[in-house]
Each structure stands twice: as structure tokens, then as C-alpha cells.
């Protein structure tokens, strides 16, 4: 029992030491890129909201280190000057590091203001048709992913 308490105290001390080392900055270093563009390159920002398969979540300075998969949706970036940028992502990863730096790597990303509502609805319609006519498991899975992206696109432009 005494050994258990010692381990507990050790874990508590380590957690406290990690918190002290990390500090609590007012902003965080943010990098966001996709195959077609770099949106942020180690820029200081206040907050980032991301869509993930475990549920959407906000990232603030001193967030616990995390690795998550992005689902199709809108990444919202709150810059230090008060500007808010909304960028649609088809998929990707988000990494939150111990030093409060954050990296998002998106398969495909585009500013929401550049998206066309009619084109988004067309993408969804075509994906739904592909899903309805898919005959193999592979084709069904690919079409289901396309439908998910299409639904997120339509939601982003509404």
C-alpha cells in the first residue's frame, strides 16, 4: 500500500512538473497546411476549433498533448487580432504538442468563402448516386466517404 502511495505521489509530481514546464501562454504556435496551400506557418493564434471523429473540440494555449483525426468539416481559427478564418477540410490530422504548438495537416482544404453552394450540392448529389449504384464493398465504402464529405461541404456553405 505504501508503494502505491509513492507511485501516486510520483505521478502527481510529474504532472505538476509538466504543467510548470509547459507554462500557460496567451497564444500558441499554429501551423496549418494541405496539399494545395499553407494557411498558417508557425503563426501565433488564440484558439482553433476542429471537427474530429471524437467530436468537435476547441484548442487553446496549454491544451493537453493530443493526436486526432479530422473529419470533413470547418476548422475555425481565431487570430490574435480578432480575425476569424473558416477553412473547410476534407480530412487530415491535428497534433497538439507539449510546447503548445499545434499542427493541422489536411488532405484538402479551402477557405469557406471560396466554396460554391451549388457546386457543393452537386458534389453531394453525385456522391449519393454513386453510393446507390455501388456494387462492391470497396465502391460502397468510397461512395460513403464521398457522401460524408459532400454533406459537410453543403453544411459549410449554408
Automatic annotation (TrEMBL):
Q: Name one Pfam family in it.
A: ATPD_C_metazoa
Family matches, as HAMAP family = ATP_synth_epsil_bac (MF_00530)
**Could you tell me the superkingdom of the organism this chain comes from?**
Eukaryota
Output the lineage of the source organism: Eukaryota, Metazoa, Ecdysozoa, Arthropoda, Hexapoda
Query: NCBIfam families this protein is in?
Result: ATP_synt_epsi
Q: Which family does it belong to?
A: Belongs to the ATPase epsilon chain family.
Q: What is this protein called?
A: ATP synthase F(1) complex subunit delta, mitochondrial
Q: What PANTHER family does UniProt report for this protein, alphabetically?
A: ATP SYNTHASE DELTA/EPSILON CHAIN, ATP SYNTHASE SUBUNIT DELTA, MITOCHONDRIAL
Please tell me whether the keyword Ion transport is annotated for this protein.
yes
Role noted for this protein: Subunit delta, of the mitochondrial membrane ATP synthase complex (F(1)F(0) ATP synthase or Complex V) that produces ATP from ADP in the presence of a proton gradient across the membrane which is generated by electron transport complexes of the respiratory chain. ATP synthase complex consist of a soluble F(1) head domain - the catalytic core - and a membrane F(1) domain - the membrane proton channel. These two domains are linked by a central stalk rotating inside the F(1) region and a stationary peripheral stalk.
**Which cellular compartments is it found in?**
Mitochondrion inner membrane
The record, for InterPro entries, names: ATP_F1_dsu/esu_C_sf (IPR036794), ATP_synth_F1_dsu/esu (IPR001469), ATP_synth_F1_dsu/esu_N (IPR020546), ATPD_C_metazoa (IPR048937), ATPsynth_dsu/esu_N (IPR036771)
Kindly report the protein's main subcellular placement as a broad class: mitochondrion
Q: Where is the ATP synthase F1 complex delta/epsilon subunit N-terminal domain?
A: 29-109
Which of UniProt's keywords are assigned here?
Acetylation, ATP synthesis, CF(1), Hydrogen ion transport, Ion transport, Membrane, Mitochondrion, Mitochondrion inner membrane, Transit peptide, Transport
Organism of origin is Aromia moschata
Q: Name one GO cellular component term.
A: proton-transporting ATP synthase complex
Assembly: Component of the ATP synthase complex composed at least of ATP5F1A/subunit alpha, ATP5F1B/subunit beta, ATP5MC1/subunit c (homooctomer), MT-ATP6/subunit a, MT-ATP8/subunit 8, ATP5ME/subunit e, ATP5MF/subunit f, ATP5MG/subunit g, ATP5MK/subunit k, ATP5MJ/subunit j, ATP5F1C/subunit gamma, ATP5F1D/subunit delta, ATP5F1E/subunit epsilon, ATP5PF/subunit F6, ATP5PB/subunit b, ATP5PD/subunit d, ATP5PO/subunit OSCP.
An example Gene Ontology molecular-function term: proton-transporting ATP synthase activity, rotational mechanism
Q: Where is the F1F0-ATP synthase delta subunit C-terminal domain?
A: 115-156
Is the keyword Transit peptide in the record? yes
